[in-house]
């Protein structure tokens, strides 16, 4: 290769974009595939089946962090992953919340509030992405952690009512607060791009 010539594999502007078929996206697909498995196990009668449903929910939740870490560390972020990852997250959370409400173990209004926030913010994220990216906040990460813990406690059998209520209450508050914060940031981003000059000076 001639010294100073661009790498034909990497291209003149850096490494080539990651392909769709990579380990991070594979984990996302596995997480989506685990959703119906979780629902099936959840509605089977018996403590053992409920524990199995909890195990599936826990594994699926863990893959959410793993696939994101792998994608960022190895440069495997793809357009498919950007779309599929939030869909997988909402599918798992929504399936668990709706299942709990159907069984009468969680108030429907809690499920509705959380799902309206999650779906609404996901849609809004895709709407404003052409104007800019709103970075993930610590509040958003705390929200996800509290939701996973709270849902997990509700799935687990046993006398955990007070712990469930406290954790779900905290998750609900953080969910609403971070949702409102995202709306404010999206509005500021929209106003900022509208007020910015359209041409170079």
TrEMBL record:
Q: Where are the transmembrane segments?
A: 20-42, 106-128, 162-184
Q: Which Gene3D superfamilies match?
A: 1.20.120.1760
One Gene Ontology cellular component annotation? membrane
Q: Where in the cell is it found?
A: Membrane
Indicate the principal place this protein occupies in or around the cell.
membrane
Instruction: Return one Gene Ontology term, BP aspect.
Output: glycerophospholipid biosynthetic process
The UniProt keywords, alphabetically, are: Lipid biosynthesis, Lipid metabolism, Membrane, Phospholipid biosynthesis, Phospholipid metabolism, Transferase, Transmembrane, Transmembrane helix
Record GO terms (molecular function)? CDP-diacylglycerol-glycerol-3-phosphate 3-phosphatidyltransferase activity
User: What's one Pfam family here?
Assistant: CDP-OH_P_transf
Enzyme class (EC, first level): transferase
Q: Which residues form a coiled coil?
A: none
Q: Which Enzyme Commission number(s) are on file for it?
A: 2.7.8.5
Per the record, membrane topology reads: Multi-pass membrane protein
Question: Which PANTHER family has this protein been placed in?
Answer: CDP-DIACYLGLYCEROL--GLYCEROL-3-PHOSPHATE 3-PHOSPHATIDYLTRANSFERASE-RELATED, PHOSPHATIDYLGLYCEROPHOSPHATE SYNTHASE-RELATED
Stated family? Belongs to the CDP-alcohol phosphatidyltransferase class-I family.
* Full protein name: CDP-diacylglycerol--glycerol-3-phosphate 3-phosphatidyltransferase
Tell me what organism the protein belongs to: Actinomadura soli
